[in-house]
Amino acid sequence: MLKKIVLHLARTKEFPEGSRHHGYEFVAPLDGEGHLDVDGWQKEKDACKVHRFWQGEDDENGHLIRTRGGKWAFSYAPGEDDDEPIFKFMQHQLKEGEYISITEHDGVTRPFLIVTIRDHFHA
Hints:
The protein is mostly beta strands. The protein has one domain. Helix content is 6%, strand content 44%. It contains one helix and eight strands; from the N terminus they run E-E-H-E-E-E-E-E-E. The chain has one helix at 38-44, and strands at 2-9, 19-29, 49-54, 60-66, 72-75, 84-85, 99-103, 109-119. The protein has an eight-stranded antiparallel beta sheet with strand order 6-5-4-3-2-1-8-7. The chain is globular. The two termini are 14 Å apart.
């Protein structure tokens, strides 16, 4: 089933308390245990969208993709220049209160807290 997942920046040197003004909202199919459902992603690729919000920067919209190397990333435009790899995405059990790491455009890997996971319905 497709889920809408909200991530907020976790504690970093720049943001010792984390930040709800920096993060991502994305849609992905999860299995009953909270792992990415690859078959579901294959069937619902177009619905697996990402919205990046970062205070002081323009919002970005893109998709959850699988790279040629088999890794998972957020991508905002064709080509690999803007891809943001998600560290060990297949191994993660996505549930509220857990963390995932994303390597952003600037090459820095940052931790993000999973704030909410809700059912996502689309037309």
